[in-house]
Amino acid sequence: DTSANVSQEVEHTITGIEPGAGITQATDKALEKYENLAGWEQEKSSTAAMLTALGDAIENEEPIVVAGWSPHYMFAKWDLKYLEDPNGVYGDVENIATIARQGLKEDMPEAYTILDNFHWEPEDMESVMLAAQDMDFAKAAQQWVDENQDMVDEWTEGVEPVDGTSIELALTPWDTERSSANVAKIVLEQQGYDVSLTPVDPSVVFEAIAAGDADASLAPWMPATHGDFYAKYEDKFEDLGENSTGAKIGLVVPSYMDIDSIEELEP
Ligand code: PBE
């Protein structure tokens, strides 16, 4: 396929995901920033619809350009590549951050310490996501906790147990965050907390924590994915630093496609 053919065959369309996702916003920016994407559109629907379209295209060896990210099983299931992003719209390596509402440290110092200590590797997150293909996230997270109690012990070292204090964690509706939130829930419950998980759009995660409606979140992807939301609410929440690193977002294509850069997509 020549790149002109590719652009025509995909009808100048990037297959995106949910309208509220950070990567959707980044792709809208890419459509503005890359002159060669003049006339291109982003189709916004859902992660499930994007994955179905990607699987169908691969089955037929057809071209497709999707909004993709890692960690995600799509890279284990299919042979895919990120398109180079010379304008840097999608950033480089993303960190996943933990944020808390102001006052959490004073109100719930035990939970604050645990959340501050929570740090794991992308492989840990991936193992929960993989297990959750066959069971619910609560169970997959419990399995990870059972197998990694030494790591959990480090996060909770010296922390006093509490007696049923309620805490609410906000998360975004993707498997990466379902994993971290469900593990954090179990660890906090082991410590005596009563934990509720609230899945919302990324903008609402920041809004809820800035307003004090939710206590904390392990969901922000920084600096590119949720940087605009972060900046909007900066100083209205506390940043406890990264809980994981090595994440990435970008435009993703099947490896059999003969292009390597966003700049090769033709108007
Ligand atoms: N994601 C997964 C989310 C954050 C985690 C990259 C799809 C987003 O774009 O907001």
From TrEMBL:
GO molecular function: amine transmembrane transporter activity; carnitine transmembrane transporter activity
SUPFAM superfamilies attached to this UniProt entry: Periplasmic binding protein-like II
Presence of keyword Cell membrane: yes
Keyword Cell membrane: yes
Main location, first listed in the record: membrane
One GO cellular component term: ATP-binding cassette (ABC) transporter complex
Species: Sediminibacillus albus
Protein name as annotated: Glycine betaine/proline transport system substrate-binding protein
Record Gene3D superfamilies: Dipeptide-binding Protein, Domain 3 (3.10.105.10), Glycine betaine-binding periplasmic protein, domain 2 (3.40.190.100)
UniProt entry keywords in alphabetical sequence: Cell membrane, Membrane, Transport
Biological process (GO), any one: glycine betaine transport
Annotated InterPro entries: ABC_Gly_betaine_transp_sub-bd
Domain ABC-type glycine betaine transport system substrate-binding stretches: 5-147, 166-266
Regions crossing the membrane: none
Subcellular location: Cell membrane
